[in-house]
Amino acid sequence: NATILSLLTFTWVGPLIAFGNKKTIDLEDVPQLDSGYSVVGAFPTFRDKVEADCGAINRLTTMKLVKSLIISGWKEILITAFLALADTCASYVGPYLIESFVQYLDGKRLYENQGYVMVSAFIFSKLVECFAKRHWFFRLKLLGIRIRALLVTMIYDKALTLSCQSRQCHTSGEIINFITVDVERVSNFSWYMHELWILALKVTLALLILYKNLGLASVAAFFTTIIVMLANIPFGSLQEKFQNKLMESKDTRMKSTSETLRNMRILKLQGWEMKFLSKIIELRNAEQGWLKKILFTKAIATFFFESSDTLVCVVTFGTCMLIGIPLESGKILSALATLGILTGPIYNLPDVISAIAQTKVSLDRITSFLRLDDLQFDVVEKLPVGSSDTSIEMVDGNFSWDLSSPTPTLQNINLKVFHGMKVAVCGTVGSGKSTLLSCVLGEVPKIS
């Protein structure tokens, strides 16, 4: 029910904030989430799309997962792309008009009311830039929430249906890492989704403005910018390598921590608390070592790109002096404003490359988890209630935890339990009591 002005200025959220200023906001006070951003509304369509692309979830690849995520949020992606384009174009109106504005102040008027037109253009471009940027960021946040909800739900559903062999590959600590670390990194990548093509657009617009003002000196600025960008390649490779090592060490630490917490009673009984604490601290130190390498690499890249704006300015104006291009005040101000805008995306380039490396590693990890085998749903045949007086029945059942083993874990099992019977499963340690109960639940792979 919000008006266009309310949507533009975000005043539609004002009543909720004012209400929260008076009393603590309860769940019933918060408006309902749109079905497109809720798990109930968005996940079934996303799951159907993934299954249609792959046929079976165990044939899922990283590219197919990315494709499904893009299709599920294509509207938001297109809207944010348009807003990013509007923000980028509006940000260059000022640098483009600065030279003409300086000439107008010097008395060189091309037409009547030129000053009013230029001031109006400055104000309008800033308004467009402001509104486009705010709504761009708001839409990116919505897209990140949607991606996070879809991936968390898919991982949770997968964890409930994992086969016993698959559970041996990933501990509960690793699954927690998938949700708290990997999914968070993938959802945060929505902030960097458009940065690469925006960078290319900003470089193109900047070079056109520089060529208009400085002529051939813009070629020197172009090659300097390209060299600065190419310097990111080794940093990006190192970032991806260190991110892989960091996540492996994090999984190892979480696995040890989870096992320690699950067996805390035994550790206290034996007095092994400090021994296991030192082991966890050792794993944590190894994880911190990889984290330090990531931060050092990022710091070197940031230092390099912090000085890139000065380097581009020196090369550009130095070339003007060498080839004899006159440096007038209007041209200098326009060039400085243009280079000032250009240094923003160049400075953010290390963060973008780091985010791409982190997202790729996280998507590969999530995909490898989703490809694991599920439980065999045809192991247990369930009959309608009341159709038989038998509650549980097995006939010549052969089951094995390890399908590659020549000897089944349990073989030739015959069991029949009627409704209301009290049954006790007795035996020595390791004789297969728990395995038999797992067979009843369908958790052990059935051979025959």
From TrEMBL:
All copies of domain ABC transmembrane type-1, residue ranges: 78-358
Location, primary (coarse class): membrane
Keyword ATP-binding: yes
Matches recorded under InterPro entries: ABC1_TM_dom, ABC1_TM_sf, ABC_transporter-like_ATP-bd, ABC_transporter_C-like, ABCC_6TM_D1, P-loop_NTPase
A Pfam family the protein falls into: ABC_tran
Compartmental location: Membrane
Source taxon at top rank: Eukaryota
A Gene Ontology cellular-component term: membrane
Transmembrane segments: 217-238
Keywords: ATP-binding, Membrane, Nucleotide-binding, Signal, Transmembrane, Transmembrane helix, Transport
Membrane topology: Multi-pass membrane protein
Organism name: Trifolium pratense (Red clover)
Coiled-coil region list: none
Record has Transferase as a keyword: no
Name listed for the protein in its UniProt record: ABC transporter C family member 3-like protein
